[in-house]
Amino acid sequence: MHSELSIGSDLLWKQVAPRISVAHFSSTAKLSGNNSTQVYVKKYEALTNSSEGKMTVFLLHDIGQYHGRFEQLIKWIQERNSSVTFIAMDFVGHGLSSGTRGHFENLDQLVNDFLCLLRTHEKDLSSNEKLLVLGHGMGGLVALESIKRLQSEYKNQVDGLILSNFILKFSSFLLNLESRPIGGPTLKKLLTHSRPLRTLKGEDVLSCPEAILSYEQDPLVVNNPTLNSLQEIHNGLITIYQHSYFQEKPIMLLNSGLGVFSQTDSIGYFAKGVKKELLTEKKYSLLKHDLYNEIERVVVFEDILSWMKII
Questions:
Q1: Are 131 and 54 in contact (CB under 8 A)?
Q2: Tens digits of per-residue pLDDT, 95-154?
């Protein structure tokens, strides 16, 4: 049973550029006795104040990444649909949010934080505003769990869901480390906070050398998340396929064909559980995991924009 979450009716937005504002709110996670862990949020306001076609898209990033990985998508979409607002958050331990880099205690904390953020946004019913959630990688897992809860609590809040490369599978050797009976609680904690392998190399998620270099040099990208974080993603996948049978909103699945996280069969299996009239599935056989920063990313952007127009 989940307790009622609230961070107030409004965030205190600070404008940092024309039509771009940032805000922070206290995370539901209590990390290392810190009761004021801050979650960073960035809003990219629509370029027009027109109510026609008004839409707000919440962006949820992947493990080790942050809101900036969506910059090219945001710019491209807004240049072609000036009525779209984007709101992106950095999960705890990622980007400009506080917490240990690349670490979170459990996936449920990330879900709770996103639901807190979502509840601060009141849909403009007079303009028939559409509200979408786009989750990439780990962000897709958070989006799915959030939608599951919203269907009973805020059934009409979200109008559609975009999931890209959201089924991540890591080495079974790594995941088994955490469950091995080695020492007591202190050693177990050290192990779960360890970073045994660099799991997110630029060459594994991107094709273009320039994009790979930019990724590797980005100070806000975490290339080696903690073992606990990887284990939590693994645990979140155990019931992932059940979610597909209970989707009541239009859902778009985006799946790349290259790279270490290519899970074409797994995402295809998930798609089989979604009602056909709600499902749009796109496969990109020549793209790697980070679809929004790949060389041929425009084809992905075009598919997303086309889908947004028909839901």
A1: no
A2: 999 999 999 999 999 999 999 999 898 888 778 899 999 999 999 999 999 988 887 666
Give domain status of residue 1, yes or no.
no
Q: What is the CATH number of the domain that holds 272?
A: 3.40.50.1820
Helix (H) or strand (E) holding 14: strand 14-17
According to the model, what pLDDT value does residue 21 have? 97
Distance CA 97, CA 89 (A): 8
- What are the counts of helices (DSSP H) followed by strands (DSSP E) for the chain? 11, 9
Helix, strand, coil percent content, the chain, rounded in steps of 5: 40, 20, 45
73: its two tokens? 């998508």
How many separate domains does the chain show? 1
Determine the pLDDT at residue 1.
33
**Separation of alpha carbons 11 and 40, rounded Å:** 11
Q: Which of 164, 106, 195, 170 minimizes the C-alpha distance to 294?
A: 164
**Token pair listed for 21:** 């504002």
265 domain residue, yes or no: yes
Q: Answer yes or no: are the C-beta atoms of 290 and 262 closer than 8 Å.
A: no
CB atoms within 10 A of CB 64: 23
Inside any domain, residue 9 = no
Q: Structural domain of residue 280, as residue ranges?
A: 14-310
Q: Examine residue 3 and state whether it is found in any structural domain, yes or no.
A: no
Q: What is the mean pLDDT of residues 17-45?
A: 86
Residue 241: how many CB atoms within 10 A of its CB?
Answer: 14
Q: In the structure, what pLDDT confidence band is assigned to residue 176 with cuts at 50, 70 and 90?
A: low
